[in-house]
Amino acid sequence: MKYGRALLNDVEGYVPGEQPKDPDVIKLNTNENPYPPSPMALEALRHVSADALRKYPDPLSMRLRARWAELQGYAGPEWVIAGNGMDELLAMAVRTFVDPGDGILTTWPTYTLYETLARLHGARVEAVELDDAFQLPETFYGHGGRLCFLPRPNAPTGVCAPRQDVERFCSGFPGLVVIDEAYVDFADDDCMDLAKRHENVIVMRTFSKSFSLAGLRLGLAVAQPGIIAEFLKTKDSYNLNAVTQAVGLAALNDYEYMKRNAARVVATRKRVTAALEGLGFVVTPSQSNFVLARWGGKPEARTVFERLKERRIFVRYFDVPRLRDALRISIGTEQEMDALIAALRDIVQ
Ligand SMILES: Cc1ncc(COP(=O)(O)O)c(C=O)c1O
């Protein structure tokens, strides 16, 4: 491109899952929550005033940050940064803490946005291949870098590294570690406390999955106040709009509602895992609101994905190494998953 930067010549840009217009599609392709957001969040949305829209929002999102600190056992808002979705926080982490040419450590397979962000910044990416169980290999611990993206649970595998392994890694890594906990509300445990004890740890969460608020765009991160102060230097002036701040705060005030929905999704995940295994899929043990279902039979996984799509059931297929034999399936409602299993039975048997 004549006017583009040389750096962009070999960057493709992140490709998100499809958002079909047809409301009748059974949409199991982008890990959204099938249940509605908290009634308190919807009430807050209805009460956004003309005045709140007329004026600029709080540039520092102070109420939201203070509430998150309180809920997660951190001393105050100076330990928290808010972003327009976690993706913005991931991009800010690169912008704030990595110089072009520096190394960013990650794994393969993982969330592909990490590599896109690194390349957009002219950073070097080192992606360490996960072992056969999609766990961190021993060699991972010896690696250096300015920043490491470590999702727990990982995407698109759903696998959680043991907590003590994450802590061991953080203790030895010379740069900053971003622990991406996008899916952690569906897991057995979390690493939220690690930023208190490790000066190089940033723990990030999103409202897109467990809070059923992907359309709102809200992410939060905790880290030591010195790290947060650096983030504040690089953030957009008003990165969170007034609606997001009001609705996000209301959702936090109904934390139990989110927990109940997450528990429903986990119960469905267990049932669906057994049903998929019954059909001959090998399902990676998932701690997320999706499963990675590997398929060694006929027709091959890509064709299964296409046949599901013809039936208006959307799942995700990644045409990349280690994932070509698999479908990533988000956990929907009980009825949606019944429809999926019935369709798969038809296609693979
Ligand atoms: C591992 C991981 N991190 C972060 C995100 C982004 O979250 P958000 O919607 O808050 O930008 C996703 C979304 O799919 C994800 O899979």
How would you describe this structure to a colleague?
Strand 6, helix 7 and strand 7 form a beta-alpha-beta unit. Helix content is 37%, strand content 15%. It has twelve helices and twelve strands. The model has no long low-confidence stretch (mean pLDDT 97). The chain starts with 25 loop residues before the first strand and ends with a helix. It is globular and about 55 Å long. It has helices at 39-46, 50-54, 62-72, 86-97, 113-120, 163-172, 194-197, 225-234, 242-252, 255-278, 301-310, 334-348, and strands at residues 26-27, 80-83, 103-108, 124-129, 147-151, 176-180, 201-206, 219-222, 282-283, 290-294, 313-314, 326-330. By secondary structure, it is α/β, with parallel strands linked by helices. The protein folds into two domains: 17-36 and 256-348, Aspartate Aminotransferase, domain 1 (Alpha-Beta Complex); 39-253, Type I PLP-dependent aspartate aminotransferase-like (Major domain) (Aspartate Aminotransferase, domain 2), CATH 3.40.640.10. A seven-stranded mixed sheet has the order 2-8-7-6-5-3-4, sandwiched between helices. Strands 9-10-12 form a three-stranded antiparallel sheet. A two-stranded parallel ribbon has the order 1-11. Helix 1 (39-46) runs antiparallel to helix 9 and helix 4 crosses helix 8. 42% of the residues are buried.
Class from helix and strand fractions:
alpha/beta
Radius of gyration: 20 Å
Helix content: 25-40%
CATH topology of the largest domain: Aspartate Aminotransferase, domain 2
Please name the CATH architecture of the largest domain: 3-Layer(aba) Sandwich
| Major sheet strand order | 2-8-7-6-5-3-4
| Shape call | globular
Total number of distinct structural domains: 2
